[in-house]
Design brief:
The complex is a heterodimer of chains A (454) and B (826). Chain A is of the alpha+beta class. Chain A contains seven helices and 30 strands. In chain B, strands 2-29-28-27 form a four-stranded antiparallel β-sheet. In chain B, helix 14 (280-290) packs across helix 15. The longest helix of chain B has 37 residues, at 776-812. Chain B is elongated. The chains are: A alpha+beta (454), B alpha+beta (826). At the A-B interface, strand 1, helix 1 and helix 2 of A face helix 15, strand 1 and helix 16 of B. Chain A: Belongs to the WD repeat DCAF13/WDSOF1 family. Chain A: Residues 365-447 form the Sof1-like protein domain.
């Protein structure tokens, strides 16, 4: 023949699986012509995935009861993922197993308000508690663990007791050595085997400092917040403190970024958190706002990319370390003022303790599935993430992804706060326009700082 | 596809040495005359030279090239065949790109040569620069001794065509031809030579011609000698004439420039030698997969944003490369017809021939259904091409799985049926009946009666929007969301009853063809047409849009026109059809099927360029064709007509490679339900239908426009202030110039450009002429302008002097003397 003719001929084998147990055969054609409305459909997918995120956002996992008073201290174990120690205002300490959601051990440690708990590092065999009764007690986990609620409970005794001459407001353990520091009128440095502090640090005037925290990277450095609205940096190697900054409001908690050695974040009474660079305390790296009442606690995720804050306004917020506004807000109707919130060591969970005598467990990513996902679903999630990233700037998608429901009271508080802030800004603007000499132009990042001392 | 590939592979290798030799084998000099399309003649000749000279070196120094050009005419007189000359002509027409570059060459030559040779050219009124060039060459030749010329001859051969083509843009070519005729009469000497000197220009004086003729004879002798020498140009040792060396030196200097130009020419001519050393096909694919050029990041000041943009661009590029790779492994190849006897048109091939030639397993694709009772039939294929919906005008409806010849349902509505349309899959379809439109499922059960759609002539379903569009005798176009039942849009066409509607698959805009020969485009969110085109003088019978959304084809009476939707312009018209074309369709690969009464003609690649005859043609014998539809993802055309339905096999009409997530003819029931859910999830809003479907990724410039408007308002408000400023300025400027004051009075707030009061004809002429071409005319004009300027200045000076003289004379109080004007007082 002088002609050669070929047409499309599809063999069924190539397109249909041989048995029902086999996977379906999939053919792809990358030609854009065979995918009309690519962009529009992708956008729609992005919209769907954002909506799905909101639908599946169920972060609250469980509430654990047991304490009889408000819980003000909480510490996670450095070694075991599921172990958490909490202390309440009535002087009881409980050790929790998060897996079983139960109390593993409990002890009536003090007769008064327990101000701080810290677990010895790196092994985590002991923990220390300090109370208003001016004592620090050292406990061994293994002593407490057995015989919960038994007769012997009363016989449970601390390994050692340290008596302080001053009031105690907080405590933190060194990351590798047998040392711990307490804050009070002065900062005291203790050793496990000495009954008295081997070092006392002050910054000139006497102050009662509350929060105190060792840096996990530069282990000899720690920061302490004072009741004179100050945040001071100390070094164990030097007898004198390094530097100090006085803010307009008091600081309630401090947390170091485990990945960026210089940076730490401070939870302030003025509803904000401030991230500082250790080397320059005259300005904040970033101001994190969003809370509607004093921020009581702050804790960095082990990844160093995010931190959580617990607030007096009954909410927990999750912040990206570089962003001003929070990524997410957690609240439940029964949760009252939250005093402590901590990340779990795998950064997947958040543990919060509040005034209402409960410890709550949350997911750190509200809509992520907890169970292991198979490869297909993983890929689907990945695809959805990238779509969200790509189309995240479009107004509809941004609106949905940013929207968070707030309780009625908080919602109105938020509106009010917004109004008052606007009014302040307006006033400032007017002053600047009409009487420029009366207004000092200070950068936002410096406004909340009174002075820096060296 | 295959043909393209071949041509690409043939064209590619020019730059590389290996391929040259590979090319040299299949191309015979005799055939080269006929095979001009695929293989540039340059190559042919090079190859010839290689054969003759058995030259190993392929690259030539610029100096040599120059020589080549000088000896052009001689070479032509040499052994070159008439065939070659023919080739040249063809080349000239084809290589337009070359010509552009050649122009630049010409300029240079012109400029150099003009001064010297214009005198000589007085006899001949040459507008062509080429002639000048040729003259120069001739003169050079005369200056050179014969021997030198001969030495230069042979390498020239290969270059002749390159240079020839350079000198002939199409317009000039015509002139040349005219001149040639004249020349032939004049130059009897030339005509005596057996070698026709068609390309030689007439400017040569008779003496020159004589010289040449002498030279030619000698050349022939010498060529033989030279054949022995492999590298003729480098044979300085053999030919120790001083003249030669001098010439070479001269030529070297010129050659440098020419060499550069030549390189440039090559780059532009040979598009297949791209920057990335990719084949043309790959470059095309790359462009396709990157979906246009990316956003430029140069103007972005924000570093973070710039970084992000860059990274996204990078990912897009990477993705494009990956998809190029993956498209190499596509399983199926498109169909084709290859005719070995080239004189035979594919048009003559009948369905019988096709069926004979294809595999037995595929022969079922050609079938015929005789359904005489229920009148003219219409047909519709499902989106994945597996199902066929047949509807007789008199009420017979059947749903067929045509690939397995399995009828799913068949029923009779006992009413007139005007149109049918599949909904999202084969389980549902809509039927426009006498009064209302109904939706049936795949078992023939009536599911909905759409009483909103009355008296409907045409139905269409927008798959990604879940919209059922309809238009009828009331002239109202209507979209109904099939998933929710809401009416998404309704618009009155106001152009009378309408029985022609198709969707643009690229952007889901509905196109209606009207009685008055107008095509209108509709979106559900807009009450007025997005665009309307006056397409035919008579009623529009049918329209179709290809899937790239670039081309629109309209049919009216016996006229079928192809339009570019982007520009709304008619590209061309199909040649005379043998009957009224009632219906047409465009396949996935861009093939066009047109009905001509009871015939169908299929046109390949007709959208981009006109064709004089169809790809295939088939006639039914009797009964006009009611509807023609290509089956997606198959090489099949469904023709429904008065007496039933016929399925024709049209090689190369369907997209060979399916995407299982888009349309899968082999999908299982479970997959079908899954895809339905996904489709519903990804349902696009009716508001998203617009002429540009990609608007979603783009930056909305509306906000900036608002801001600009505000700014303009501000400017208006501050007009007074600026006016005042202007006035002040005008006072200041008044002192200097008288003209400026008038200008300021007119302008007000906005500074306007100075309007030219007196049109300067000379300047305008220069302006009108092409800027990048420098020729005699323009130069003359410029010279004239300059002279005029000079004169003006002189006059001014004179006037000034006069005034000064006068003033001085008066101040001095002396008498005015005639002699004063000669005295210099500064």
């Amino acid at each position: 023949m002088d002609t050669e003719i070929k047409i499309i001929s599809r063999r069924r084998k190539k397109y249909v699986r041989s048995t029902n147990r086999d996977i379906n055969i999939v053919h792809r054609n990358p030609n854009p012509e065979s995918h009309p409305f690519e962009q529009a459909r992708e956008y729609k997918r992005a919209l769907n995935s954002v909506k799905m995120d909101r639908i599946f956002a169920k972060p609250f996992l469980t509430a654990m009861t047991g304490h009889i008073d408000g819980i003000y201290c909480l510490e996670r174990h450095p070694k075991y993922l599921s172990r958490v120690v909490s202390a309440s205002a009535d002087g009881e300490i409980r050790v929790w197993d998060l897996m079983r959601r139960k109390t593993v051990a409990n002890v009536q440690a003090h007769n008064q308000f327990i101000r701080g708990i810290t677990i010895s590092k790196p092994n985590g065999n002991f923990f220390f508690s300090c109370s208003d009764d001016q004592t620090i007690k050292q406990w061994r986990f293994s002593d407490l663990r057995s015989n919960v609620n038994s007769e012997y409970q009363k016989k449970k005794k601390p390994i050692s007791t340290f008596i302080s001459e001053e009031t105690l407001r907080g405590i933190d353990h060194h990351w590798s050595r047998h040392t711990f520091v307490t804050s009070g009128d002065t900062v005291q440095v203790w050793d496990h085997k000495r009954s008295k502090p081997f070092q006392k640090l002050t910054f000139g005037t006497t102050e009662t400092s509350s929060a105190i925290k060792f840096s996990p990277v530069q282990k000899n450095i720690f920061a302490a917040a004072g009741s004179d609205r100050s945040v001071a940096l100390y070094d164990l190697k030097i007898s004198t403190p390094i530097r100090k900054v006085i803010l307009k409001n008091q600081t309630n908690a401090i947390s170091w970024n485990p990945m960026e050695a210089f940076n730490f974040t401070v939870a302030n009474e003025d509803h904000n958190c401030y991230t500082f660079d250790m080397r320059r305390l005259d300005r904040a790296l970033c101001i994190h706002n969003g809370h509607l009442n004093a921020v009581m606690d702050v804790d960095y995720s082990p990844t160093g990319r995010e931190f959580i804050t617990a607030s007096y306004d009954h909410t927990i917020r999750i912040f990206n370390i570089r962003s001003i506004s929070s990524r997410d807000v957690y609240h439940t109707r029964r949760m009252k003022r939250v005093f402590v919130a901590k990340y779990s060591a795998d950064s997947k969970f958040i543990i919060s303790a509040s005034d209402d005598m409960n410890i709550r467990l949350w997911k750190s990513e509200a809509s992520k599935p907890l169970l292991p996902v198979d490869r297909k679903e993983k890929n689907a999630i990945k695809y959805r993430e990238s779509l969200k990233k790509r189309y995240g700037y479009l107004p509809e998608i941004r609106r949905i992804s940013k929207h968070r429901h707030l309780p009625r009271v908080l919602y109105f508080m938020k509106q009010q706060k917004k109004k008052s802030l606007q009014a302040r800004a307006r006033k400032y603007r007017n002053m600047k326009m009409n009487n420029p000499s009366s207004v000092k132009q200070i950068k936002m990042r410096k406004r909340f700082i009174v002075k820096q001392l060296k | 596809m295959n043909k393209k590939n071949q041509s690409i592979f043939k064209e590619e290798p020019i730059t590389s040495k290996k391929n040259k030799s590979r090319n040299a084998k299949p191309i015979k000099p005799k055939n080269s005359a006929t095979k001009t399309k695929k293989t540039p003649t340059k190559q042919n000749q090079k190859n010839k030279n290689q054969k003759k000279n058995s030259a190993t070196k392929t690259k030539k120094t610029p100096a040599k090239q120059n020589k080549n050009t000088n000896n052009k005419n001689q070479n032509q007189n040499n052994k070159q065949n008439q065939n070659k000359n023919k080739n040249q002509k063809k080349n000239v027409n084809k290589n337009k790109n070359q010509n552009k570059n050649q122009n630049s060459n010409q300029k240079k030559n012109q400029n150099k040569n003009q001064n010297k040779k214009q005198n000589q050219n007085k006899n001949t009124k040459n507008k062509n620069v080429n002639k000048n060039k040729n003259q120069d060459k001739n003169q050079n030749q005369n200056k050179n001794k014969n021997k030198n010329q001969n030495k230069n001859d042979q390498p020239v051969k290969s270059k002749i065509f390159a240079t020839k083509t350079k000198t002939t843009p199409t317009k000039q070519n015509k002139n040349q031809n005219k001149n040639k005729n004249q020349d032939q009469k004049k130059n009897k000497n030339q005509s005596k030579n057996k070698n026709q000197n068609k390309n030689q220009n007439s400017n040569q004086k008779k003496n020159q011609n004589k010289n040449q003729n002498n030279n030619q004879k000698k050349n022939q002798n010498q060529n033989k000698n030279q054949n022995k020498n492999k590298n003729q140009n480098q044979n300085k040792n053999q030919n120790k004439n001083k003249n030669q060396n001098k010439n070479q030196n001269k030529n070297k200097n010129k050659g440098k420039n020419q060499g550069k130009n030549k390189k440039r020419n090559q780059n532009k001519n040979d598009r297949r030698t791209p920057r990335r050393k990719w084949s043309q096909e790959k470059i095309g694919q790359y462009k396709k997969f990157t979906r246009g050029s990316g956003a430029s990041t140069q103007h972005v000041k924000d570093r973070k944003l710039r970084g992000m943009m860059k990274s996204t661009e990078r990912t897009i590029r990477r993705g494009a490369l990956l998809s190029i790779k993956s498209s190499q492994y596509l399983q199926e190849k498109p169909g084709y017809i290859k005719v070995k006897n080239k004189s035979k048109r594919t048009e003559t091939i009948t369905q019988k021939d096709i069926v004979k030639n294809i595999e037995i397993g595929d022969q079922y694709k050609n079938f015929e259904l005789n359904l005489r009772t229920f009148g003219p039939y219409i047909s519709e294929y499902s989106h994945n091409g597996r199902f066929l919906l047949l509807a007789g005008k008199k009420g017979h409806i059947s749903l067929i799985d045509w690939m397995r010849s399995n009828q799913l349902t068949e029923f009779h509505v006992e009413e007139q049926v005007r149109d049918v349309a599949f909904l999202q899959n084969e389980t549902l379809f809509a039927v426009a009946q006498k009064k209302y439109t109904y939706i049936y499922d795949n078992k023939g059960m009536e599911i909905h009666e759409l009483d909103n759609h009355t008296d409907i002539n045409r139905l269409d379903f927008l798959r990604y929007h879940f919209l059922l569009a309809s238009v009828g005798n009331a002239g109202i176009i209507q979209w109904q969301d099939v998933s929710t039942g809401e009416i998404a849009g309704k618009a009155q066409t106001k152009l009378g009853p309408c029985d022609c509607m198709r969707q643009n698959p690229y952007n889901a805009v509905m196109l209606c063809g009207h009685i008055r020969g107008v095509v209108t485009m509709w979106s559900p969110s807009v009450k007025t047409p997005l665009a309307s085109m006056y397409v035919h003088k008579t009623k529009v019978n049918d329209i179709a849009v290809d899937r790239t959304g670039n081309y629109l084809v309209t049919a009216s009476e016996e006229v079928v026109k192809v339009w570019d939707i982007r520009t709304y312009k008619c590209l061309h018209q199909l040649p005379y059809l043998k009957g009224v074309s009632r219906t047409l369709d465009i396949s996935q690969t861009g093939m066009l099927a047109v009905s001509e009464g009871s015939r169908v003609s299929i046109w390949k690649d007709v959208l981009k360029k006109p064709k004089s005859y169809p790809y295939l043609r088939d006639s039914l014998g009797s009964g006009y064709i009611e509807r023609v539809r290509f089956c997606p993802y198959e090489d099949v055309l469904g023709v429904s007509h008065m007496n039933g339905f016929r399925s024709l096999v049209i090689p190369g009409s369907g997209d060979p490679n399916i995407d299982s997530f888009e349309a899968n003819p082999f999908r299982t029931l479970k997959q079908r339900s899954e895809t339905t859910v996904k489709q519903l999830l990804e349902k696009l809003d009716p508001e998203m239908i617009s002429l540009d479907p990609k608007f979603i990724g783009k930056v909305d410039t509306g906000a900036s426009k608002v801001r600009n408007n505000e700014l303009q308002l501000m400017e208006k408000a501050n007009k007074e202030q600026s006016l005042e400023r202007k006035r002040r300025f005008s006072k200041f400027s008044n002192n200097d110039d008288d003209d400026s004051s008038t200008n300021n009075d007119q302008s007000g707030a906005v500074i306007t450009k100075k309007k030219r009061k007196n049109k300067d004809k000379l300047k305008e002429k220069i302006r009108k002429m092409q800027r990048n071409v420098m020729d005699q005319k323009k130069e003359k004009l410029i010279n004239r302008l300059e002279r005029r300027k000079h004169r003006k200045e002189k006059r001014k000076e004179k006037r000034k002097e006069k005034r000064k003289n006068k003033n001085q004379g008066i101040q001095k109080g002396g008498e005015f003397r005639a002699l004063n004007r000669f005295s210099k007082r500064f």
